[in-house]
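Allow me, if you will, to draw on your knowledge of protein folds for a short while. A protein sequence and the structure tokens that stand for its backbone fold form the material at issue. I would ask you to consider whether the tokens describe a fold that such a sequence might reasonably adopt. Thank you for your consideration; the sequence and its tokens are set out here:
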Amino acid sequence: MNKFGMRQVLMAISLSLIFGSSSLINLGNSEFPLDPVILKIRYFIVGINLIFLITMSGFDIWHIPTKPVPLLLFWSLFTLVSVISGLVNNDLASVRDGLWLMLAVPVIFFKAFPKLMDKNANFIISLSLFLGLLPYIFMSLLLHPLSESNSNIYSGVFPNSNQLGFTCASMASGIIILLIGSLSQTPNIWYVPFSFLWLFSLMMILVTNARTSLIAFAAMSVILLLRLLQKPQFLIAIILGITTLASSIIIGLSGDQTQGILQQITNIQKKEALSGREEIWSKTISDMSLLGHGTNYFDLNFGLGGHNSIIIALGSNGLIAAYLMIGFMMASFYYTYRYFRRYEKQELYACGPLVITTGFWFLAMGEGMFGSLGNAMTMAYMLSLGVTIIKVDPSTNRQSNKNLHPEQFP
């Protein structure tokens, strides 16, 4: 990691506020909708900080990236189809969101912000994810202590335990990146607290009984495990630390508290595989059309969301949009993996885009991730793709590429 001065601190604070405030949407659901005032505050905080970062970038937002072609082509076509679908279905919300994704996301998240953060981008994104989402976990445990929970499933300050699990998994993506990066630092003592935070995230996901979040956490942790296999001494230290922490928790809690937490963890095995989502998915597939039925399709037919980003695209924007989203997903994995393998020996946090992409799409299999703003994981995913694009397309950041590969420039 390069020099981390006041400028980088301001970026991290601003990005933490963006991640934290955008995730206010998770505090409500169809049964307990958010107060409109909270939604206005959400847009206000995000908007102010977006303007602040754009100002820091010197308004360098006028050149849309052109490479990598497959990734940007799938994105451009997906957003274009979303706009066309909105026009055909007289759905102004779909048109609005499609235009935001088509025009603003490429210039702001794919280019301006990653270029602004430069070589510290992966570190700033992962640190901001952790700092931006930690208050939700802290307030949950403060206002609703885990040991005093009367329910077998813990939800904290959220109306639904899956929303808390989702927040923990999103925060864990930042922790995993920071942990992997700390393993290569000298001295590398930071891997100790990040290891405990990784374990803490796992424990929180288990007690929320959030299966999709647990799968996403496990998928991201596979990348961590592969890194640890290259440094067996750290793997042994982390295993010993986990054993010590787990033993301390069990000893420190009373018998009833321990039994209650263990009961919450075992409940995840009793949960229905898809919790009724297969009925929504089956009905959406049977109703599919080329350009969908508009953003109100799920509320009108089911009274709740589609619980899958691709299914939501299929129902709202149609079959063409769903296929283009799948193409964009596959291109995302391909380019972030290439980025990781190419720069893992040069950058401590080169795993960032791959970890966030993995977490994002596994979470997307159980939640809707795209929208006018989305949530912290959505924005982190877009920024991570931007980090990858900046390195692939020299025209977006010639100076950074010159520093990395001087032999390619006269």
In short: Residues 398-410 have pLDDT under 50 and may be disordered. The CA atoms of residues 38 and 375 lie 14 Å apart. DSSP finds 17 helices and no strands in the chain. The two ends are 26 Å apart (CA to CA).
